[in-house]
Amino acid sequence: IFGHYPYPDKIHNITLEIKNNLDPKMDNYTAVKGGMTNWKHFIGNDLFECMLDKNMNYSCGYWRTAADLQQAQYNKLDLICRKLKLQAGQTVLDIGCGWGGFAQHAARYYGCHVVGITLSKRQYEWAKQRIGDLPITLHVMDYREILYRLVCLST
Questions:
Q1: Which of 5, 48, 71, 127 could form a disulfide with 66 if both were Cys (CB 3.0 to 4.6 A apart)?
Q2: pLDDT tens, 130-145?
Protein backbone atom coordinates (compact mmCIF):
# COMPACT_ATOMS: atom_id res chain seq x y z
CA ILE A 1 0.00 0.00 0.00
CA PHE A 2 2.86 2.45 0.71
CA GLY A 3 4.09 2.09 -2.86
CA HIS A 4 0.91 3.79 -4.08
CA TYR A 5 0.75 6.37 -1.30
CA PRO A 6 2.04 9.85 -2.22
CA TYR A 7 3.88 10.37 1.10
CA PRO A 8 5.82 7.15 1.90
CA ASP A 9 8.57 8.91 3.90
CA LYS A 10 6.05 10.76 6.03
CA ILE A 11 4.18 7.51 6.71
CA HIS A 12 7.43 5.76 7.69
CA ASN A 13 8.34 8.55 10.14
CA ILE A 14 4.86 8.49 11.65
CA THR A 15 5.05 4.71 12.05
CA LEU A 16 8.35 5.07 13.93
CA GLU A 17 6.80 7.75 16.15
CA ILE A 18 3.92 5.42 17.04
CA LYS A 19 6.29 2.54 17.84
CA ASN A 20 8.53 4.74 19.97
CA ASN A 21 5.65 6.19 21.97
CA LEU A 22 3.62 3.07 22.71
CA ASP A 23 4.04 1.53 26.14
CA PRO A 24 2.94 -2.13 25.96
CA LYS A 25 2.58 -2.26 29.75
CA MET A 26 0.10 0.63 29.88
CA ASP A 27 -3.40 -0.46 30.86
CA ASN A 28 -6.52 1.19 29.42
CA TYR A 29 -7.25 3.31 32.51
CA THR A 30 -3.74 4.75 32.59
CA ALA A 31 -3.87 5.41 28.87
CA VAL A 32 -7.22 7.21 29.11
CA LYS A 33 -6.15 9.35 32.05
CA GLY A 34 -3.07 10.29 30.04
CA GLY A 35 -5.19 11.18 27.01
CA MET A 36 -4.10 8.13 24.99
CA THR A 37 -7.10 5.91 24.37
CA ASN A 38 -5.45 4.76 21.18
CA TRP A 39 -2.63 5.78 18.88
CA LYS A 40 -4.58 8.41 16.95
CA HIS A 41 -4.90 10.55 20.08
CA PHE A 42 -1.20 11.12 20.54
CA ILE A 43 0.78 10.75 17.32
CA GLY A 44 0.18 14.18 15.86
CA ASN A 45 -1.83 15.30 12.88
CA ASP A 46 0.53 14.70 9.93
CA LEU A 47 -0.83 11.28 8.98
CA PHE A 48 -4.43 12.46 9.14
CA GLU A 49 -3.75 15.57 7.09
CA CYS A 50 -2.50 13.23 4.34
CA MET A 51 -5.57 11.00 4.26
CA LEU A 52 -8.60 12.91 5.59
CA ASP A 53 -10.59 15.79 4.16
CA LYS A 54 -9.57 19.39 4.90
CA ASN A 55 -11.72 19.43 8.07
CA MET A 56 -10.13 16.19 9.33
CA ASN A 57 -13.36 14.20 9.60
CA TYR A 58 -12.39 10.75 10.83
CA SER A 59 -15.38 8.74 9.70
CA CYS A 60 -17.19 7.65 6.56
CA GLY A 61 -18.63 10.12 4.08
CA TYR A 62 -22.02 10.20 2.40
CA TRP A 63 -21.28 9.55 -1.27
CA ARG A 64 -24.75 9.48 -2.89
CA THR A 65 -24.16 12.72 -4.82
CA ALA A 66 -20.50 13.38 -3.99
CA ALA A 67 -17.69 13.44 -6.53
CA ASP A 68 -14.87 13.71 -3.96
CA LEU A 69 -14.03 13.16 -0.30
CA GLN A 70 -14.60 16.79 0.70
CA GLN A 71 -18.15 16.78 -0.70
CA ALA A 72 -18.89 13.34 0.83
CA GLN A 73 -17.87 14.62 4.27
CA TYR A 74 -19.92 17.80 3.86
CA ASN A 75 -22.93 15.70 2.80
CA LYS A 76 -22.54 13.48 5.87
CA LEU A 77 -22.29 16.39 8.30
CA ASP A 78 -25.26 18.12 6.72
CA LEU A 79 -27.34 14.93 6.82
CA ILE A 80 -26.55 14.52 10.53
CA CYS A 81 -27.56 18.13 11.25
CA ARG A 82 -30.81 17.76 9.31
CA LYS A 83 -31.68 14.48 11.03
CA LEU A 84 -31.06 16.13 14.41
CA LYS A 85 -33.26 19.04 13.24
CA LEU A 86 -30.66 21.51 14.51
CA GLN A 87 -31.73 25.12 14.74
CA ALA A 88 -29.99 28.40 15.44
CA GLY A 89 -29.48 29.03 19.13
CA GLN A 90 -29.39 25.39 20.18
CA THR A 91 -26.44 24.00 22.12
CA VAL A 92 -24.93 20.71 20.98
CA LEU A 93 -22.59 18.51 23.02
CA ASP A 94 -20.10 16.76 20.71
CA ILE A 95 -18.46 13.94 22.68
CA GLY A 96 -15.30 12.84 20.91
CA CYS A 97 -15.19 15.93 18.70
CA GLY A 98 -11.71 15.14 17.39
CA TRP A 99 -10.56 17.95 15.11
CA GLY A 100 -13.93 19.72 15.33
CA GLY A 101 -15.33 19.07 11.85
CA PHE A 102 -18.90 18.47 13.03
CA ALA A 103 -18.69 21.34 15.53
CA GLN A 104 -17.65 23.74 12.79
CA HIS A 105 -20.40 22.54 10.45
CA ALA A 106 -23.18 22.80 13.07
CA ALA A 107 -22.00 26.25 14.17
CA ARG A 108 -21.35 27.68 10.69
CA TYR A 109 -24.37 26.35 8.79
CA TYR A 110 -26.97 25.83 11.53
CA GLY A 111 -26.15 28.59 14.01
CA CYS A 112 -25.65 26.24 16.95
CA HIS A 113 -23.31 26.70 19.86
CA VAL A 114 -21.22 23.54 20.13
CA VAL A 115 -19.39 22.25 23.17
CA GLY A 116 -16.83 19.69 22.05
CA ILE A 117 -14.73 17.35 24.14
CA THR A 118 -11.74 15.34 23.00
CA LEU A 119 -9.04 13.29 24.68
CA SER A 120 -6.35 14.54 22.34
CA LYS A 121 -4.43 17.73 23.05
CA ARG A 122 -3.16 17.71 19.47
CA GLN A 123 -6.66 17.46 18.02
CA TYR A 124 -7.79 20.21 20.41
CA GLU A 125 -4.95 22.53 19.36
CA TRP A 126 -5.61 21.90 15.66
CA ALA A 127 -9.35 22.57 16.07
CA LYS A 128 -8.79 25.72 18.18
CA GLN A 129 -6.78 27.23 15.33
CA ARG A 130 -9.61 26.58 12.88
CA ILE A 131 -12.76 27.66 14.71
CA GLY A 132 -12.13 31.39 14.55
CA ASP A 133 -15.11 33.28 15.96
CA LEU A 134 -17.60 30.41 15.59
CA PRO A 135 -19.62 29.72 18.75
CA ILE A 136 -17.61 26.62 19.70
CA THR A 137 -16.15 25.76 23.10
CA LEU A 138 -13.61 22.94 23.20
CA HIS A 139 -12.26 20.96 26.14
CA VAL A 140 -9.61 18.29 26.53
CA MET A 141 -11.16 15.75 28.88
CA ASP A 142 -12.35 12.19 29.26
CA TYR A 143 -15.98 11.87 28.16
CA ARG A 144 -16.75 9.99 31.38
CA GLU A 145 -16.07 13.16 33.37
CA ILE A 146 -18.80 15.06 31.56
CA LEU A 147 -21.22 12.13 31.69
CA TYR A 148 -20.67 11.92 35.45
CA ARG A 149 -21.51 15.62 35.77
CA LEU A 150 -24.65 15.22 33.64
CA VAL A 151 -25.87 12.27 35.74
CA CYS A 152 -25.21 14.19 38.96
CA LEU A 153 -27.15 17.18 37.66
CA SER A 154 -30.11 15.09 36.62
CA THR A 155 -30.56 13.20 39.90
A1: 71
A2: 999 999 999 999 888 8
- Please answer whether residues 6 and 49 qualify as being in contact, where contact means their C-beta atoms are separated by less than 8 angstroms: no
User: Taking Cα atoms as reference points, which of 65, 135, 61, 126 lies closest to residue 105?
Assistant: 135
Q: How many residues does the chain have?
A: 155
CB atoms inside a 10 Å sphere around CB 14: 18
| Burial track 68-86 (b if 16+ CB lie within 10 A, e otherwise) | eeeebbbbbbeeebeeeeb
Which phi-psi region, left, alpha or beta, contains residue 65 (left: φ > 0; alpha: ψ -120 to 50)? alpha
Q: What is the pLDDT of residue 42?
A: 55
CA 141 to chain centre: 13
In contact, 56 and 48? CB cutoff 8 Å: yes
pLDDT tens readout for residues 78-91: 999 999 999 999 99
